[in-house]
Hints:
The protein is α+β, with helices and mostly antiparallel strands. The chain has two domains: 22-302, no CATH class; 329-438, Orthogonal Bundle (Arc Repressor Mutant, subunit A), CATH 1.10.10. It contains 20 helices and seven strands. The protein has helices at residues 6-30, 38-41, 46-54, 80-87, 111-119, 125-131, 148-159, 181-188, 193-207, 233-255, 275-281, 298-302, 310-327, 332-343, 351-357, 362-371, 376-392, 399-405, 411-422, 426-438; strands spanning 105-107, 145-147, 212-218, 221-227, 263-266, 284-287, 293-296. The strands form two sheets. It has a five-stranded mixed β-sheet. Strand 5 (263-266), helix 11 (275-281) and strand 6 (284-287) form a beta-alpha-beta unit. Helix 6 (125-131) crosses helix 7 and helix 8 packs antiparallel against helix 9. 40% of the residues are buried.
Amino acid sequence: MSPPGRPLELDEHAAKLTTDALGIASADMAEMPDAKPADETVKHGRFFQSRLEVEPLERGRSFRSPRSGRFTPCANRLSRRAIMDCTSRDRIRASAGGSTSGMETFLATVGQVFVRLIEMHGIDAHALVREAGVDPATLRDPNSRIPSRAADAVLARAAGLIPDPAFGLRAARCWHPSNLGALGFAWLASSTLRAGLQRLERYGRILGEKAEMKLMNNRDGLRFRYDHRRRDPLLRAIGTDFAMSIVLDMCRMNYGASLRAVEVRLSRARPGDTEPYRHFYGCAIHFGANEDSFLISNRVADESLPTANRQIAGTLDSILVAQLAALDKSNFPARCRSSLLEQLTSGESSEEAMARRLHMSRRTLQRRLAESNTTYQKLVDDTRRDLALRYMEDARKTITDVTFLLGFSGQSAFTRAFKRWTGMSPTRFRVQKQASATV
């Protein structure tokens, strides 16, 4: 068995290196030219290549705005209410040191995707960002957050200047993992599409607090549902196109550019031209539905991915848990889970130890958890289960290693818990995983 304290020391060291690397990667992307011809970007790696294979529109067009100040005439009128909702409030200038407490926000680097998308259509995106009250330099800061209403204002203004009602789909050609922070890199390291989409569901609020992502499992496959939560129908439709195109392209990046959804449901009214949607999704599309979602088969969702790296994914998950807890301090279970992750391998995983870490009495801890419909023991059990399934997929970790990392007193205690979670022993689980990976 590894000496006590050593695995935790390595994890903390790896977490620091990963955090530094994320900052460097985001800064590197921020320094990239605003645009390169789409054909040229293929030379720089897999990221942009999948978009060109799936969505070959404007293959030779540059992302760079001509900065002429002349905008394309509006062919689609956005409702007056949407623009008023977005721009009539006090203007907010977000910055690394600025406060956005008390309002819904999104990760500043996601704004770089908005900029690239808008500039594809020959529009000065930075001017629109400034109109929304945001300093464009903020979009390069991986530690900043921007009010969601500023993004709505930029989308509303862009929608009034871009004649293509399906322009949001082209966001799939404009994103990079670094725009999504730690979650983008955790996605790349996910073992399956199901595991990656579960990360999006769990940590999606880091990207944006207003929208909601949910997964639904059924016999037909795994359904990803996106709720933009905007009142204005056109703003909601554009925002949904933007987000769902990126998520599906994330799946294509990990799985392969040939991936097609089985079915897509969109709440937007059927547009006059449905070809952009049929071409992008590659499947049947149901407009006017009661939700926005796409379905992938269970076989595709559970197929092992060549990009998987469970060690990196585990380190990034620890960072994401801490980020989520810091983002929403009112999310008490998230704060407790973050504390628990630090406790498990230190030998101090107890209710009393957690209460001390959170600077409260044991009774207050119990009351706060009860208000969130959970208990300390359930929190420990759920956290151990999630970590166990991740660790057991890493062939480099022995069952003894996993037992220690999860803070169990002995291997027999871990085996009993694992059988309760999965219906099989750890050894049988690992054998079945290895067998499925070779099929």
